[in-house]
Amino acid sequence: MRMLKDRISRRLDRVGMRVDKTVIARLASYIELLDHWNTRMNLTALHGDEEGLDRLIVEPLVAARYLPAVGRLTDIGSGGGSPAIPLGVACPGLQIRMVESKTRKTAFLREAIRHLDMGKVLVEETRYEELLTRSQLHESQEVVTVRAVRVDVAVLRSLQALLVPGGVVALFRSSTSEKRLDGLQPPLVWEATYPLVESLRSELLLIRKLDIS
Question: Which of 33, 44, 91, 167 could be a cystine partner for 80, CB 3.0 to 4.6 Å?
């Protein structure tokens, strides 16, 4: 565990981030648990090697610079827990809902939040389309994060129903993708694209929901 914490610290140092030791310890516990579960079931292709640490830990913590530190966040297609778990560890003021349709992955996610004592995190075993049928969730989220789900303009139009006016969809993706999504229409507008981890050629694309009331 000590070696893992040191490796996470070094990866964060590479992007100029200094993170509290207690946060690093909890992130190391998350990676250790993920690697343990991966030996029994294929939760994710990412592991605790250097590239995996960059993708699982460094990317979300860099992205946190551009996202609210408090409020409600829904993560679509949570898979092995990143970016939602690292964001929740680094920003305890976030109330996070992780949405994952596969049973074995939701079992891991529930164990991870129990293991990390993340009381403000909810795991739902469902598809994101089902969330859209719940009127109580409409215009209720400050942030919707998406990494492992294919996103087009039609998906964004659907997801914006979850956002409060002024909220953002945060897309984690490769910088080799098109910079903007063609066909965006109000209330959604492209706001900014931020680099995340240079070696991974990854970036964060922010789509803002305008208040047009």
Answer: 44
Q: What is the mean pLDDT of the chain?
A: 93
Q: Is residue 70 domain-resident?
A: yes
Claim: this prediction has a pTM higher than 0.85: yes
CA distance 82 to 91: 14
Q: Considering the chain, what percentage of its residues have pLDDT values greater than 90?
A: 83
Q: Could you tell me which residues are beta bridge partners of residue 94?
A: 71
Both tokens assigned to 94: 């976030």
In a domain, 27, yes or no: no
What's the structural domain count of the chain? 1
- Hunting for tokens 């092995």 — which residue is that? 80
Q: What letters, b where the CB count within 10 A reaches 16 and e where it falls short, cover 139-150?
A: ebbbbbbbbebe
The torsion of the CA quartet 29, 95, 69, 20, rounded to 10 degrees, works out to -20
Q: Which residues pair with 125 in a beta bridge?
A: 100
